[in-house]
Design a protein that fits this description.
Length: about 250
């Protein structure tokens, strides 16, 4: 499905879910890939039928964030969506930004503090913001986002806790819920948790972290994921067949 600038990114993603059953996103880390490599990966993703590109990182060591977003946007005919790790990860050339609130934690800086600081810039450049509840789920190891946000993840064997947080997000008026095991996770978000959350709310559920095979992608979709995200795996395995992962999300 070709993305048209005449519709919002959020409406486009809803159309992808309605027509295809589920969608597949690739996460690009601008701190790990050079601009040329990010541009090449964006072309590969578009050719393979990936539904959207997410760009973001928990810790930005350089100053190339905007340049990477610009380069990827220039060569991509699919939505480029910022997946921010902090308030400074904003770029005008993106199509949208996931306006994340870390509802699973109790650190006010990542529930509302960073959002207040970034909101004026997002509004001033006219960037579409997709309000999203970000829920960290324990993955068997401390991930970068857990460390940087100084928050505890939801225990992986407590789907009812994730379910309650997702229901609160929907009542807040948020448009999406993102279940995140974290970059380099040992374990992905459990299928029973995805099922519990997806059955309790009427907004899309994104699932990411620790997903390394097309079979794992298909399992998350079967459990109820609306969109599945893979990032590190493609950075570390450049020859992986992207088309196989895209195919896996289609029921």
């Amino acid at each position: 499905m070709v993305f048209s600038s005449e519709q919002t990114v959020y409406d486009h993603l809803l159309s992808v879910k309605a027509e295809k059953g589920a969608g597949f996103f690739v996460l690009l880390d601008p701190d790990r890939s050079k601009i040329a490599a990010s541009r090449d990966q964006a072309k590969r993703c578009a050719d393979a039928g990936v539904d959207a590109l997410l760009i973001g990182t928990s810790l930005m060591m350089g100053n190339s964030f905007s340049e990477v977003v610009d380069a990827v946007s220039e060569v991509s005919n699919i939505p480029v969506i910022i997946f921010p790790g902090e308030k400074g990860q904003v770029a005008k050339s993106a199509d949208a930004i996931l306006f994340l609130s870390l509802l699973s934690g109790r650190n006010p800086e990542f529930i509302i503090g960073e959002q207040v600081r970034s909101a004026p810039l997002i509004k001033s450049i006219g960037l579409e913001a997709i309000s999203t509840a970000y829920l960290l789920v324990d993955s068997g190891r401390m991930t970068s986002v857990e460390y940087m946000s100084n928050t505890k993840p939801i225990p992986s064997d407590k789907p009812e806790i994730a379910k309650a947080h997702a229901m609160a997000a929907e009542l807040f008026g948020m448009k999406m819920v993102y279940l995140e095991a974290g970059s380099g996770a040992e374990r992905a978000v459990p299928d029973d948790m995805i099922h519990a959350v997806s059955k309790s709310i009427d907004i899309p559920v994104i699932v990411g972290g620790g997903i390394r095979t097309p079979e794992a992608v298909a399992s998350k979709v079967k459990a109820g994921a609306s969109f599945v995200v893979v990032g590190n795996h493609f950075e570390n395995n450049g020859k992986s067949n992207l088309a196989e992962y895209v195919k896996a999300v289609r029921p």
